[in-house]
Amino acid sequence: MKEVLRRAITGAVYIILLLSAVFLNSDAFDFLFMTFGLACLYEYKRLVQLKGYHIFIAYLALWWVFIYLVPDQVFVNDKVLINILMFLTLTINFALITYLFSKKEKLFNTLQKFIIGLFYIGGGCIFLTMIPYKDNEFAKLLIMGIFILIWVNDTFAYLVGTAIGRTKLYSAVSPKKTIEGTLGGFIFALGAAYIMGQYESIINPIQWMILAGVIVIAGSIGDLVESKFKRTAGVKDSGAILPGHGGMLDRLDSLVFAAPFAYLTLNIFSYVS
User: Long-range contacts of range 71-75, CB-CB < 8 Å, 24 or more positions apart?
Assistant: First the structure.
């Protein structure tokens, strides 16, 4: 009972902090996710035993360029820079998918650990922060909708998996996850996406459902990727900053991995509209 109460209190504080940042102003949102990114990188460093603080400096420099300089059109080819970051981030993510399904617990060298952390976590947090900015406006309901999709998927994957889950999804990495739970979370997320499409018109209901599919699939893979990092490191949680929930990376692994895929999907919608 104590553990449930602790998880509930931590979850409530996390949600209040997130909502406050989103609805206060865009600067608060930017700062919050810059901070979350630093916390995730710190936990990642410990998981893979990456020494030094160079990755923090590189992340903050990358953040400054893409969150402040690119939107102000300091660079002539700002779209090209975004596309380069997208290419590098997705390349690392697909490399991590290969790592996830490989049977060997690969030991990365120092340079590889640095590059993976910078684009897997740093790139993911940057794209997550860039998602709500459309035509120089801060789309609060769009980013909240994405958070809701992740929460609905996580909640119902757990509930359905607990109730009827029998078939293991990928027991070698995450023994508790089931195929039934994963499908349950996916279906409920699609339902939530359709409902949100009736109220947030920045994209239509079908596009919301496509976006939900992308986020849930990519987010589920991201969760498994982080689980493999933890299994390789021999730890249960990435950290202990969130009582009852583990570390910040435990909380944001799905969002961080799914963010570049979601950003790309939204840009495709803008292009074909």
Answer: 71/133
Single out the residue of 161, 266, 248, 163 nearest to residue 212, CA to CA: 266
For residue 67, count other CB atoms closer than 10 A to its CB.
Answer: 19
Q: Tell me how far CA of residue 172 lies from CA of 103, 111, 162, 175, 272, in angstroms.
A: 9, 27, 19, 7, 40
Residues 260 and 270: beta-carbon distance below 8 Å: no
Task: Tell me the backbone φ, ψ of residue 75, rounded to 5 degrees.
Answer: -100, 145
CA distance linking residue 127 with residue 142, whole number of Å: 14
- Please state the φ and ψ torsions of residue 7, each to the nearest 5 degrees: -65, -40
- pTM for the whole thing? 0.91
Query: Angle at Cα 239 formed by Cα 219 and Cα 21, nearest 5°?
Result: 60
Is there a contact between 158 and 11 (Cβ–Cβ < 8 Å)? no
State the Cα–Cα distance between residues 174 and 61, nearest whole angstrom.
34
Token pair belonging to 247:
């570390």
Q: What is the pLDDT along the chain (273 residues), one digit of tens a residue?
A: 565 566 667 767 778 888 888 888 888 899 999 999 999 999 999 999 998 899 999 999 999 998 888 766 555 567 888 999 999 999 999 999 999 988 776 678 899 999 999 999 999 999 999 998 876 788 888 898 999 999 899 889 989 998 998 888 888 888 888 999 999 999 999 999 999 998 877 888 999 999 999 999 999 999 999 999 988 888 887 876 766 567 889 888 999 999 999 999 999 988 655
Residue 245, SS3 per DSSP: coil
The answer for residues whose C-beta is within 8 angstroms of residue 165's C-beta and 6 or more apart is 178, 179, 180, 181
